[in-house]
C-alpha cells in the first residue's frame, strides 16, 4: 500500500512540472510566460544531475525551481560532439526557439550557488551562455571550438559576464574573452541573484544588470560574424578540466547550482522583475 501511495503522489507532480522526453528520448522542460517554448538537454544526464523541484518557500518566484549537480566524470555527448573527448564536463539545457541576431535580444534568470560551491579556476565554470547556430569555428587548446557570444562564468572568486570578442576568419576564428565582474561568488551562496543582460544588435551595445542594478555597459556590437541564430543555454558547464586536476592533483569537485525565472524578450522590462515588478512568475 505504501508503494502505491508513493507512485500516486509522484505522478501528478511529474505532470505538472513540465518535464518531458521528445521523440528521440531527449529530456526537456516546458515553460510558461518565459519567451521560450522549452529547454532541452541534447546530450544526456544522470538522474542526480537535474531535478525540477516544487517548493514555493525556496523558489525565487512561483512554485518551482531547478537544481543542477555536476560531479567528477559527468561528461556526455551526441552525434556531433563528445565532452568526454574534449576535456569538458556538463549538464546543460538549450532553449528553443532560437533568436535572429537583430534588434535587441534580452535574457534574464535567477541563480543560487550551494553553500559548499567550489571555484574550479583555472578550469572555467559557465553558468549560462548565449550560443551561436551557424557561427564561426576555430580551435582552442588544440581542440575544435565553436565559440559562444556570451558566457556567465564563475572564476577567480567572482561571477563574470564573459563577452567573446571574435575576429579573424569564419573558419579560423580568433576568440578573446572580455571579462566584466558581476558579483562575488561568496555572496551568491544560498542567496538568489538575479542576472539580466541585453544584446543590442541595432545600436551595437551590450548591457548587464545584477539584482536590478546595471553593472556592465559595452559600447560595441555583440557580433563580428553574423550567425544564423542565437540561443540561451543554462546549467553547469566546465571546460578544460585538466587544468584544475593538474593544479590540485585530484578529481573535479562536485558543484550544485540552482536556477529559476529563466526568460527572454526584446527589452529589459520583459526579463527582469526588479525593473518590472509586474512580471508574472515563470513555472
Folded structure, characterized:
- The chain has 2 helices and 18 strands.
- The protein has helices spanning 2-17, 242-248, and strands spanning 19-21, 27-30, 38-40, 50-54, 64-70, 88-96, 104-113, 124-133, 138-140, 143-145, 150-155, 158-169, 172-184, 193-200, 205-210, 213-218, 229-239, 255-265.
- The longest helix has 16 residues, at 2-17.
- It is mainly β.
- Mean pLDDT is 93; it is low at 1-17.
- The chain is globular, with a radius of gyration of 19 Å.
Quick take:
This protein has 283 residues and is mainly β. Helix content is 8%, strand content 46%.
Radius of gyration: 19 Å
Question: What structural category do the secondary elements indicate?
Answer: mainly beta
Q: Quick one: how many beta strands? A: 18
Number of helices: 2
Mean pLDDT: 93
Topology:
Blueprint: H1 2-17, E1 19-21, E2 27-30, E3 38-40, E4 50-54, E5 64-70, E6 88-96, E7 104-113, E8 124-133, E9 138-140, E10 143-145, E11 150-155, E12 158-169, E13 172-184, E14 193-200, E15 205-210, E16 213-218, E17 229-239, H2 242-248, E18 255-265
Antiparallel strand pairs: 1-2, 2-3, 3-6, 4-5, 5-18, 6-17, 7-14, 7-18, 8-11, 8-17, 9-10, 11-12, 12-13, 14-15, 15-16
Amino acid at each position: 500500500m505504501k508503494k502505491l501511495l508513493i507512485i500516486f503522489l509522484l505522478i501528478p507532480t511529474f505532470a505538472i512540472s513540465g518535464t518531458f522526453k521528445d521523440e528521440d528520448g531527449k529530456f526537456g522542460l516546458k515553460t510558461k510566460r518565459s519567451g521560450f517554448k522549452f529547454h532541452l538537454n541534447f546530450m544526456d544526464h544522470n538522474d542526480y544531475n537535474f531535478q525540477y523541484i516544487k517548493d514555493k518557500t525556496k523558489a525565487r518566484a512561483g512554485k518551482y525551481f531547478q537544481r543542477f549537480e555536476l560531479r567528477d566524470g559527468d561528461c556526455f555527448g551526441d552525434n556531433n560532439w563528445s565532452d568526454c573527448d574534449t576535456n569538458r564536463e556538463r549538464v546543460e539545457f538549450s532553449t528553443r526557439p532560437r533568436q535572429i541576431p537583430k534588434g535587441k535580444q534580452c535574457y534574464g534568470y535567477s541563480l543560487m550557488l550551494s553553500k559548499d560551491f567550489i571555484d574550479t579556476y583555472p578550469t572555467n565554470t559557465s553558468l549560462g551562455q548565449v550560443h551561436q547556430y551557424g557561427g564561426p569555428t576555430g580551435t582552442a587548446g588544440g581542440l575544435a571550438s565553436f565559440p559562444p557570444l556570451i558566457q556567465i562564468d564563475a572564476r577567480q572568486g567572482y561571477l563574470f559576464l564573459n563577452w567573446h570578442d571574435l575576429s579573424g576568419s569564419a573558419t579560423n576564428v580568433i576568440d578573446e574573452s572580455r571579462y566584466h565582474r558581476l558579483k562575488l561568488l561568496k555572496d551568491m551562496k544560498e542567496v538568489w541573484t538575479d542576472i539580466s543582460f541585453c544584446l543590442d544588435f541595432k545600436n551595437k551595445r551590450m548591457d548587464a544588470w545584477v539584482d536590478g542594478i546595471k553593472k556592465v555597459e559595452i559600447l560595441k556590437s555583440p557580433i563580428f560574424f553574423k550567425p544564423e541564430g542565437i540561443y540561451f543555454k543554462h546549467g553547469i558547464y566546465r571546460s578544460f578540466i585538466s587544468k584544475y586536476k593538474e593544479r590540485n592533483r585530484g578529481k573535479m569537485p562536485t558543484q550544485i547550482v540552482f536556477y529559476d525565472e529563466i526568460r527572454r524578450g526584446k527589452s529589459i522590462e520583459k526579463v527582469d522583475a526588479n525593473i518590472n515588478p509586474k512580471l508574472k512568475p515563470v513555472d
